[in-house]
Each structure stands twice: as C-alpha cells, then as structure tokens.
Design brief:
single chain, 13 helices, globular, 0% strand
C-alpha cells in the first residue's frame, strides 16, 4: 500500500502537475471521509485530538509529500530520494532510545545497515542527477518530517479512531496543497479522463491503505519496527513498476530485493529480555503459590472441637 503512492505519482504527473495532483487527492479524501463522518459516525472530536492530528497531518502528509514531490520537480532522481528516505529506520532507531525508551539490539542494527545496503542496490541505477545542491535537502527534510510525525504520534497519544484521524490530517493537507495550488494557478483538474482513475488509486491505496495501515502499525508496535518495514518499499515498487509500466529490472535490483527481504526479519528480531540482577529470583505466574489460609487460634479450635466440629449457623 505504501509503495502504491510512488506508482500513483508516476501515473499522475504524466497528466498534470504535482501540486494539482496532491490538492485533488486530499480534497477527494477529505470529502469522502467528511461525508462518512457526518452520515454514519458523528463522533465527538475534542480540541486536543484536533490539534494533535493537525500537527500529524502537517508533518507526515503535507511535509513529507511536499519534500518528495518538489524534489522530483527540481530534478532529483527518484532513486536518490528513495535512498535518502531509506535512512528513516536508522534515524528512528537512533532516536527511539532517548525519546521513547525503546532499546535497539546490536543484531537489529546489523539488520538495519544491511537493509540500507539492499535499498542502495535497488535504486543504484537511478542515483546522481544534475539538480541544484539545495534540491537534495528536500527529500532529507521530507524523511525527517515523517520521522517527526511518527514520534509525535507516540509522544502525543490520542484515542481518536483511524478514520477520524485521517479525516483531520487530510483536511489539513487539503488546505496546505490548496494554498500552493491557488498560488500557482493550478487548482483546476485536467480534462483527461485518465486523471480520475489515478485519483481513485491514490485515495484508496495510498491514503486509506498506505497511511491507514501505517498509523495502525505505529499504534500497535514500536517506531523502529514500523520504520524498518519501509525498507520493503523500494523493492516492492521496483517489481510493481516492472509489472505495470514494463520498466526493466537489473541484476543489481534483484540482488537488492533479496537483501532487503533478508535484512528486515533480522532487524525486526525481538529484543531479548534483560537478565535479572544477581540475587533476584524471577518467577512466572505459574510458579507463584496460592496464599495460605490464616491459621486458626487454639481457642477457636477448642471451641469447634467442643461443638462437634460444626460451625455456628
């Protein structure tokens, strides 16, 4: 699902500019989710939840997609952007300890490093470029924006369901891209009928699927585990582009695909539990003995014996 965004961007930018594509993508998402909320949900969204998910939308959607798309328009190759984006698991693992207290084992660091090498092989045929040096900072800022949004979701917990979360985030992104589109005079959609199937692709697969599953994984797992799964995006996109667009697959790309799929399980290996300090015995629940009944006093036993062992009614 996450890889579908790159495929949709390839199809959409052949029909219109990226600003127009992003504006209509999130406008349709906001319209659909808004109608669903008004007709079926009507759940209460507090000001706190509204503020939290507005920030998440700015960081993870508007900030991330703006950096990637505008870098492509300035001439940064897609492979270079993908390689820079692949730094996210390493950055997330480095920050998870001091910010969230999530430990990354040495074996997981090895898996992350190997995964980065696999991504480099996958995108090696599309590295370089002749864009200005400043343009190469855009995918870096995009990656950092997504990392910041992911950590913000964990540090600012919200009980708002995924559907309402995407509604608020997409509404904020619609405003951002709407302002950009209005400023460049590119709010009108193209007349080509192929435009709307591309929008449907981006809405269903990339937004509902990609961002929906991303936030669901962030809520149920650690930041490092969710970020590590993004190593599978470049090889998955490579295979999908070969099936959909007939783009050639090189031997280095196949080698990188195998490395990525081998490195991710290594990086996702569970961290072993810390050993107990010396002199401390750790027991499981099964080892715990049931509490003893309090011993009866001698006087009470004599009274029961005199009464024939019967308890008073």
């Amino acid at each position: 699902m996450w890889s579908s965004g790159f495929l949709g961007a390839t199809m959409g930018t052949e029909l219109t500019g990226s600003t127009t594509l992003l504006f209509w993508r999130f406008l349709v998402v906001t319209g659909l989710l808004g109608a669903w909320w008004l007709l079926l949900r009507r759940t209460r969204i507090t000001r706190r939840d509204l503020g939290i998910h507005a920030v998440l939308g700015l960081l993870s959607q508007a900030g991330y997609l703006s950096g990637v798309v505008f870098a492509a328009e300035l001439g940064v190759p897609a492979g270079t952007s993908a390689l820079i984006a692949a730094l996210q698991p390493l950055v997330a693992a480095a920050l998870a300890g001091p910010l969230l207290g999530q430990h990354t084992a040495p074996r997981q660091w090895v898996g992350l490093a190997i995964g980065l090498g696999g991504v480099a092989l996958v995108v090696s045929g599309d590295l370089g470029g002749s864009a200005a040096v400043l343009a190469y900072t855009l995918p870096l800022l995009a990656m950092l924006s997504l990392v910041a949004g992911t950590f913000a979701e964990r540090r600012l917990p919200s009980a708002l369901p995924i559907g309402e979360s995407l509604l608020v985030q997409s509404a904020v992104s619609t405003v951002v891209f709407g302002v950009l589109a209005a400023g460049t005079g590119s709010t009108a959609p193209p007349t080509s009928p192929e435009f709307w199937p591309v929008i449907a692709w981006l809405v269903v697969f990339s937004t509902f699927g990609g961002y929906g599953f991303y936030w669901l994984n962030v809520r149920r797992g650690s930041v490092g585990r969710v970020s590590t799964l993004l190593y599978l995006t470049p090889p998955t996109t490579m295979v999908a582009a070969w099936l959909m667009f007939g783009e050639p697959v090189r031997a280095a790309g196949l080698a990188g695909l195998l490395i990525c799929f081998a490195a991710v399980p290594l990086a996702l290996a569970p961290t072993p539990r810390a050993a107990a300090p010396p002199g401390v015995t750790v027991r499981s629940r099964c080892d715990r003995r049931p509490p003893r009944r309090p011993a009866r006093s001698r006087r009470r036993r004599r009274e029961l014996a005199a009464d024939g062992g019967r308890k008073p009614s």
